[in-house]
Amino acid sequence: MTTQEALVALNLLPKIGPVRVRRLLEAFGSPTAILGVTKDRLMRVDGIGEETAKILHNWQDHADPLAEIREAAERGIAIVTQDDADYPTPLREAYDPPLLLYVWGKLEARDRHAISVVGSRRATNYGTQATKKISYQLAQAGFTIISGLARGIDTAAHEAAVAANGRTIAVIGSGLAQLYPPENLVLAEKIASGFGAVVSEFPLHTAPDKQTFPMRNRIVAAWARAVLVVECPAWSGSLITANLASEYGKPIFAVPGPIDKPTSAGCNQLIRDGATLVADASHILDDLGELPFARQPSAREPATELPELPPEEAAVFAAVTADEAAVDRIIERSGLPAHVVTATLMKLEMRRLVRVFPGFRYARR
């Protein structure tokens, strides 16, 4: 049995997590050795009771690592262990790193320059627009955007990174064969096709539950150089992610929201507690520094001598005037779908053809 096969087997077993495996490795030296140890010897390890020892000793009753590896290969999914060069260094250094990662897509060395973007599943228009704007700018600056592929803020962060032709990593709280939420399958396929990777530590057919999402959150917190919380209420999984990141020594950034809106209470509290207030990606870049491989939009031509724009960009630019206008008004003028207009406005902003004002109002430069 190879090391990878042994790790896949351990990962398939119930009630055996990264912390227990670390203790077992300290006791027995290798994953393959763990699977060959007697029940009595297993029980001598701190934290390994009789039930866990029985599962480990009879592991073949619970796991078929060869079938799991074969199915992953058939689905185009790589299984990355801590011994592999592709395994993210920040995760390897965490207290409880995943035994392995299932990777749909491709991890690259530059993904070590990552920022996690998290927030509410029930995002408001304010939160969605702020996420798209800042995530787009960060992706343009060369940072990989990490999020959880959940509805709301996560989805907006991934979409903005793709729109910027940047990199994004979706860390999900289920197995890759049980992708959740299912309506984000098309987005996941887009990410895996060349914009990054969809990643899980869970066996392929693991369904999402109340335990898998907190486990996912620790990966989101540990992987990135910093965490940005865009919009969340006072009680939110996003705050758990931020707290985990703080324990890992990561900078925490937060987008402020209206003081009378419960949807922003969590972010406002984070700022009170010491998180850095963010209204633009430049506030993050000032702290973390720009990257040498950042994509720089062209700003050499003034707006009066425009380069030829793609049809959608031209249509949206034509709907923007010298006077400030709300996004809804620009959507109405352009006749294009809302998601197209908002994504295109970010592109035009990065080209320095339009500028954004408070309340997400736009005007030509």
What's the layout of helices and strands?
Elements: H1 3-12, H2 18-28, H3 31-34, H4 39-43, H5 50-57, H6 65-74, E1 77-81, H7 89-92, E2 100-105, E3 114-118, H8 125-140, E4 144-147, H9 153-163, E5 168-171, H10 185-195, E6 196-200, H11 212-223, E7 226-229, H12 237-247, E8 252-254, H13 265-272, E9 276-277, H14 281-288, H15 311-319, E10 325-326, H16 327-334, H17 338-350, E11 354-357, E12 361-364
Parallel strand pairs: 3-4, 3-7, 4-5, 5-6, 7-8, 8-9
Antiparallel strand pairs: 1-2, 2-6, 10-12, 11-12
Helix pairs in contact: 1-6, 8-9, 8-17, 9-10, 11-12, 15-16, 15-17
Brief digest:
44% of the residues lie in helices and 13% in strands. The strands form 2 sheets. It has a 9-stranded mixed beta sheet with strand order 1-2-6-5-4-3-7-8-9, with helices on both faces.
What low-confidence regions span 5 or more consecutive residues with pLDDT below 50?
296-305
Tell me the strand percentage band.
5-15%
Question: What name is given to the CATH topology of the largest domain?
Answer: Rossmann fold
How does the helix and strand content classify structurally? Answer: alpha/beta
Features:
elongated; 3 domains; 365 residues; Rossmann fold; DNA polymerase, domain 1; Arc Repressor Mutant, subunit A; 3-stranded antiparallel β-sheet; alpha/beta; 9-stranded mixed β-sheet
Write structural notes for this entry.
This protein is α/β, with parallel strands linked by helices. It folds into 3 domains: about 1-65, DNA polymerase, domain 1; about 110-290, Rossmann fold, CATH 3.40.50.450; about 305-365, Arc Repressor Mutant, subunit A (Orthogonal Bundle). About 45% of the residues lie in helices and about 15% in strands. It contains 17 helices and 12 strands. The strands form 2 sheets. A 9-stranded mixed sheet has the order 1-2-6-5-4-3-7-8-9, sandwiched between helices. The chain has a 3-stranded antiparallel sheet with strand order 10-12-11. It is elongated and about 75 Å long. Residues about 295-305 have low confidence and may be disordered.
